[in-house]
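Morning. Coffee machine broken again, so started the prediction first thing and wrote up yesterday's gels while waiting. Chain of 308 residues, entered below exactly as on the submission form.
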Amino acid sequence: MGSNYPAINLSDVRRLQIPGWKPPQQRRIAEILSTVDEAIEQTEALIAKYQQIKAGLMHDLFTRGVMPDGQLRPTRAQAPHLYKESPLGWIPKEWDCFTVEELLEKSACPMRSGPFGSALLKNELVNEGIPLLGIDNIYQERFVPTFSRFVSYRKFTELMRYSVLPRDVIITIMGTVGRCCVVPDSVTQALSSKHLWTMTFDNNRVLPDLVCWQLNHARWVKDWFARYSQGAVMEAIQSSTLRTLRLPVPHIEEQGLIRSRYRSSSHRIDVEQQHLDKLKQIKYGLMHDLLTGRVRVQVPEVAQASAR
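Came back before lunch.
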């Protein structure tokens, strides 16, 4: 043991007992695990490729948009008459620019963060009840429904102004700043935390999925946040920074076409990600079974004979 933290010394390593395999068995175990590793690497490469394709597609969709026939508009170089200047640069003539605040739902508290201070004390958290969301639930375009913090229903009703609704857009504002996702329909009751901004948008004007993608990836969003960052890394996103952020907004019908292309591209990545997760689980299971000796490795007689 070290003086300040746990440590492993040489005598600990020497006393460690591990199963003893003959060389043919070792080679066979290595072959099995290498096969899974290769499948994992190929899937990771495929996901990276699809992500690059999606990034390029989404950039085109948010700078050129989609015509009624589902095809991308010609570029400005090809058809300059189809575009106009805006605070964000050149956009299709049919589009407008709005601030985030202008796109929020007209309700009492469409954008909220908290509760703060004595409004929710640590000793008021319970083992089960209404989930209290944090940065560990919010990833880029992915909501993780694994909950570790809860409040009682009574406390939830006291803090109703911080409640989270299905299709809300949430962005992290502390820790890992700037991760954004849409709350799925399956989350019917939850409470926001002070580490998040939760926004309810007017879905008749803008689709949450498209706001989410821009907050995660769009160049004009990154430029805007960088303008208000302190040092090299942004420490938090202030309310005023987020409210005054401008977004390009197509007509709602065109947004629907853009969302269809977005979802199709995202689905392909999701399928491969699920496959990758399964492969990693398989590898973990194999390592546990093979490296502990729980499952005996069968080596063909030919391989055993050649090893003698």
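The longest strand covers residues 83-86. Going to sketch it on the whiteboard this afternoon.
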